[in-house]
């Protein structure tokens, strides 16, 4: 069941939460909550019954459900709050004109699609700032993640896809699929505000011509396509197209944030969490260490940074219940470090393993001159080529936009392949960070699967690949980055069947690190639904007095 955003009414709690967010932004506060919004001097809090690390999907679900249960909760988020307009009157910059807001402490942007006609026309010099998109580089794989209140929801394409039930069951053999598909997936979709593009509008609008062309080429190959829902408000998008609303998805806004239209977590789960009055979000605070006190409470060390990245304060927090929502990279790094430096020595040996890229590969095809994709393209994908049922070569390929404002005859795709390869993180005592053991050979497995599918599509349509999009070396398949980092603290291995971390009580994982490296579709609906399942169980069983 999806809800129509046009009809979506804000609850009283969401309205209170939105007020708290606006007040914090207007006063430049790094502490956001109803108390902060109403009281002149917020009380200094270093202990809370519950702390949540990270404000992406897993963290946001934990915060809302804890707040609703009446449990005072602090959320610690290393990124900033994104609702203060810059000098151009906008909160976020567009992909066409990136500035300091685009990337996390970089001197130059590092966009996934680096070149056009082999020229670096895409990236720009910027000044260092806590921008919204980060590219975390490991030896053979870099990982794109969102930074800020809302995590990945601020930068992603909004595709809200529920995985195939049979593949979910394959990946999570110990999870009750009836409960997931009957209760937690619908709950997640409803709070996220998932909606569908109007098929009639889709068929007629210039903004999705690029998708219709790719659909035709898939059909010529005998392949199935399917619409995918999104959290971008399609009613708003139609008004953008009609010229009655300020453009966002239709103005090349996406990976550096959307100024309008997208129901990111700060507008849904987190607004409601703040609205309970029990949740406070602290921004620009990065947790670096987790200890356990003699009484069993958790003690956190967090660095508060300013807009230059300088650590201006090191803070200590303590809590009874600790929820890890730092994402696959953030949570896994914290736990691997805690185990290896001896602050949480009883963590399971599997912490740090079971990591995968969700089989991500990006590629472009060159179309015939008569197959124009359109100068105008919406940044929100709405369709995928679904060949997952092909057991010889399962692939789900998102038909991705490449909005440049010019006709370029490129069909772009983000292929999700069923790559069985997994890697582990290890602790680097020199830097205090983690290394990722992913190899180029492991990426080659994804490439060969994507290539099998797109060779068929090229052959059926007499087309070829684009060689100019991913650097100067004629690279066809971008296999060195992922948007979908998954795993590291896998459900049922590093944790029990509900995300309770093995070896420690009252310590939980609620984010993408629970997913064992692959889910076959874009992952945030799965991450949200699993977090809902964890919170329902934990609040029923663990937090009773
Ligand atoms: P995530 O959303 O990454 O949140 C983690 C949060 O924790 C972040 O805000 C971090 O800044 C913060 N954090 C990390 N470490 C610390 C620390 N030590 N102290 C304090 N804070 C910390 O995690 N998925 C889809 O389903 N559909 C899409 O269309 C889609 N498109 C994407 C496009 C792009 C460009 C990218 C980058 C991702 C896309 N994804 C998409 C992936 C999706 O955003 C991702 O799976 C989720 O955001 C992961 O959710 P988590 O809760 O695991």
Detailed description of the structure:
Helix 3 packs parallel to helix 9 and helix 3 runs parallel beside helix 12. By secondary structure, the chain is of the alpha+beta class. The N terminus is likely disordered. The chain is built from 12 helices and 22 strands. A hairpin with a 5-residue loop joins strand 9 and strand 10. The strands form 5 sheets. Strands 1, 2, 3, 7, 8, 9, 10 and 22 form an 8-stranded mixed sheet that branches. Strands 6, 12, 13, 14, 15, 18 and 19 form a 7-stranded antiparallel sheet that branches. A 3-stranded mixed sheet has the order 4-5-20, with no helix packed on it. The site of flavin-N7 protonated-adenine dinucleotide has 39 residues, from helix 3, strand 5, strand 8, helix 10 and helix 12.
Kindly summarize this structure in a few lines:
By secondary structure, the chain is of the alpha+beta class.
The quaternary organization reads as single chain
Task: Determine the number of helices (DSSP H or I, runs of at least 4 residues).
Answer: 12
Principal-axis shape equals globular
DSSP, total strands: 22
Please give the largest β-sheet.
8 strands, mixed
List the helices and strands and how they pair.
Elements lengths: L11 H15 L4 E2 L1 H5 L8 E7 L3 H12 L4 E4 L56 E5 L4 E5 L18 H7 L5 H16 L6 H6 L4 H12 L4 E3 L6 H9 L26 H7 L3 E4 L2 E8 L5 E8 L5 E14 L2 H14 L12 E4 L3 E7 L16 E5 L7 E6 L9 E8 L7 E4 L4 E4 L3 H22 L2 E2 L11 E2 L2 E2 L3 E3 L18 E3 L14 H18 L4
Parallel strand pairs: 2-3, 2-10, 3-7, 5-20, 10-22
Antiparallel strand pairs: 1-7, 4-5, 6-13, 8-9, 9-10, 11-21, 12-15, 12-18, 12-19, 13-14, 14-15, 16-17
The site of flavin-N7 protonated-adenine dinucleotide has 39 residues, from α3, β5, β8, α10 and α12.
